[in-house]
Amino acid sequence: MDIILHNYPQSPVAEKVRLGLGLKGAAWKDVLIPRIPPKPDLVALTGGYRRTPVMQIGADVYCDSQCILQELERRLPQPSFFPNDSQGLAWGISRWGEQVFVESIKLVLGAAGEALPQDFAQDRGRLYFGPDWQNQLQNFNQHLAPIIAQIRVHLSWVEQRLSMSVSNFLFGNAPGLADLEIYYFVWFIRGRWAQGPEFLAQFVKLVEWESRMAAIGHGQMSPLSAQEALEIAKNSQVQTLEQNDSNDPQGLTPGMQVSIKPDVDGGEQATEGRILAINQDTISVLRKNDQVGKVCIHFPRAGYQVQVID
Fold first, then answer.
1. How many CB atoms lie within 10 A of CB 25?
2. Per-residue DSSP letters for 121-144?
3. For residue 75, what is the domain's CATH number?
4. Measuring CA to CA, which of 65, 173, 230, 283 is 20 to 30 A from 113?
């Protein structure tokens, strides 16, 4: 079945996945979604999840780049996202990369100040910084230098790694997940902060590496409409098999009705469904509605809250 990516061009997290598709040499369908809610076609597919990107393969729907990249590695094992046996460390780098990405959001939103469109500021501010987002954005605007200093430290670590190695990428001469997890926030800083190119220029090896990463490209993309994607889901069968995890700390098992949402207070709607499969990395739930029929929606465990619905 075709890989379908629901995304928009300016999304840095979607850029991470698009480059991952390029690394795999994958062919995929591109569904354009709105930058801010409402996103009726997307949430029909996900049961409420509104972040970008979302990957669809038939009636199986993958939320969060962590879950998407795991599934791409499973379906397209070569070339691997984990050169030189970098699996565990690369996922650790991904969690660190999320922290740096949030710092870069503070920088970009803070630097934009009043020039930031109000609807976009309200949506992203609430999503990443909680109910007190207005005060926080004002603070970012007034105190950019400490944010820049933090990002500079993190990028200096990457610069050190690249300077110590004769290889082209973080774990050898082949790019992998660790490279993707750093590239996307570098891409964001360069493209969204007016001073980004000047700031990044101090990291010579990083900029060289950035060019090598960009050259990977996005694979073979062709456009698809949202309605076509929903029809594909409706006319497909869920491929995921039931799976149980006897060691699950929450005692979650297939058949339980649960709600799932990110573990930050972003004001987001939870996805509710019946557990079909669960393991230490992912949880998959079944949902059904008139627009898409029965779908299986997959989430990572790291970074998400799962609550049983009585």
1. 13
2. HHHHHHHHH-TTHHHHHHHHHH-H
3. 3.40.30.110
4. 65
